[in-house]
Amino acid sequence: MKNQNASEALSNAGGIIGRTGLVVIVFFALMSFKSKNEIGTQQESVVPASIVQSIPMVYESYNYVDVAREKDGMAGKSIEIEGKVIQSTSSWGDVVLRVATAGDYDEIYYVTIPEDSLDFNVLDDDYVTVKGMLAGIEKYNSVLGGQISIPKIEADEITLH
User: Do 37 and 63 reside in the same domain of the chain?
Assistant: First the structure.
């Protein structure tokens, strides 16, 4: 009789452990499903384009040497410069300028802007304010064959003075 009670007790214990294990597995499965569902239903906040367009862009001033020293030319940062146009050309639908900011040829930016975004021509010796994004370091060959590397700005707007 004792063997039978021990056997029944062992069987009942196994059933309890089995049921407890099943409950634990189901609990974790539900928690996992809930977590995945919560992640899947979270939505990114989307700002309507009309609001984004009405937020004015803030343009910063940077020390030329700091910009030129960075390997990536501080790419992606907004910038505002003032200076004298020392060269103005057109290339593939863009106006391309070299703008001296220190009143001499030591601090020159390479500036591009789509031709159709300007309602005037920019000429050599014009004084301008350029607002745009730094786009790395522009490298090109000079007339004498040396390589020149200067910070590049993709302009959003250019104002004549």
Answer: no
